[in-house]
């Protein structure tokens, strides 16, 4: 299988020489094309720092991160901006939609920046609107739609440019249970039917159970990695809870 993401022996330090904190400790893993991978760990485990480094929001202290063969740790300036714009899709917990734009315009913005033609933008948005079940809200503004609908609009914006990798940071964190389930079912559709590669950080075992693989982080290192395989989502959820228990985490943080 083709690797979309390769994280190679990365380390990340914060602070000064007199007071250094190691957030990521010699961490390596790979994500293959078409995988849906969840990253789990307690607060302070390094999972958000890891996502920030992969997304190029933050820079590693040492090591390398390859996305589709490109070493993103070496990118700077316009090359870095172009890479973010064209190769990565982002889904945030707080949606990050522009209130002055309709759902359609929020989704179109990423393509407009790339100078895609109006007709091609329209074609792509109509298709993704069907895939994510947001066709009837495209003309509405963010304040007119629910949290779940906002997150599906944000998801549409993330995949509209056909990125190599979609990065999701606690995507269900601001949603009620029904909206979260609907969003995760859409993620499953994007992954299985459209072959979208997704890397998702979550503290929630139910959310992680929709992934095909879960990587657990503890103290900046990989603690364990488990694969769904042919297991049902319920059985995979039980496996996740077993590892959370081994980690010594509070189960209330995982449910």
Written account of the structure:
This protein is of the alpha/beta class and 255 residues long. Helix content is 36%, strand content 26%. It has eight helices and ten strands. A hairpin with a 2-residue loop joins strand 1 (3-16) and strand 2 (19-32). Helix 3 (103-113) crosses helix 4 and helix 3 packs parallel to helix 5 (147-159). It is globular and about 50 Å long. The two termini are 33 Å apart.
In spatial order, strands of the major sheet run 6-7-8-3-9-10
Classified by CATH, the class is Alpha Beta
Oligomer type: single chain
Tell me the count of domains. Answer: 1
Distance between the termini: 33 Å
What is the CATH homologous superfamily assignment? P-loop containing nucleotide triphosphate hydrolases
CATH topology: Rossmann fold
Share of β-strand residues: 25-35%
Alpha-beta content class: alpha/beta
What letter string, H or E per element, gives the SSE order?
EEEHEEHEHHHEHEHEEH
Report the helical percentage.
25-40%
Query: What form results from the Cα inertia axes?
Result: globular
Tally of helical runs: 8
Strand segment count? 10
Radius of gyration from the alpha-carbon trace, in angstroms: 18 Å
Major sheet description: 6 strands, mixed
Low-pLDDT runs:
250-255
Q: Quote the average pLDDT.
A: 91
The CATH level-2 architecture is identified as 3-Layer(aba) Sandwich
């Amino acid at each position: 299988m083709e690797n979309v993401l390769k994280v190679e022996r990365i380390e990340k330090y914060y602070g000064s020489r007199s007071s250094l904190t190691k957030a990521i400790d010699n961490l390596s893993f790979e994500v293959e094309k078409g995988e849906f991978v969840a990253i789990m760990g307690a607060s302070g485990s390094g999972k958000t720092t890891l996502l920030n480094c992969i997304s190029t929001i933050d820079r590693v202290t040492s090591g390398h991160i390859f996305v589709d063969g490109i070493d993103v740790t070496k990118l700077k300036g316009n090359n870095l901006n172009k890479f973010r714009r064209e190769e990565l899709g982002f889904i945030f917990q707080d949606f990050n939609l522009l209130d002055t734009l309709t759902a359609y315009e929020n989704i179109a913005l990423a393509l407009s920046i790339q100078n895609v033609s109006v007709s091609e933008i329209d074609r792509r948005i109509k298709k993704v609107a069907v895939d994510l079940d947001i066709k009837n809200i495209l003309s509405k503004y963010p304040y007119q739609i629910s949290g779940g609908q906002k997150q599906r609009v944000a998801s549409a914006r993330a995949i509209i440019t056909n990125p190599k990798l979609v990065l999701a940071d606690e995507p269900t964190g601001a949603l009620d249970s029904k909206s979260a389930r609907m969003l995760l079912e859409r993620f499953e559709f994007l992954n299985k039917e459209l072959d979208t590669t997704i890397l998702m950080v979550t503290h929630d075992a139910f959310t992680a159970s929709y992934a095909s693989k879960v990587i657990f982080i503890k103290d900046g290192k990989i603690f364990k990695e488990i694969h769904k395989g042919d297991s049902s989502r319920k059985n995979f959820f039980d496996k996740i809870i077993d590892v959370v228990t081994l980690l010594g985490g509070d189960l209330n943080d995982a449910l």
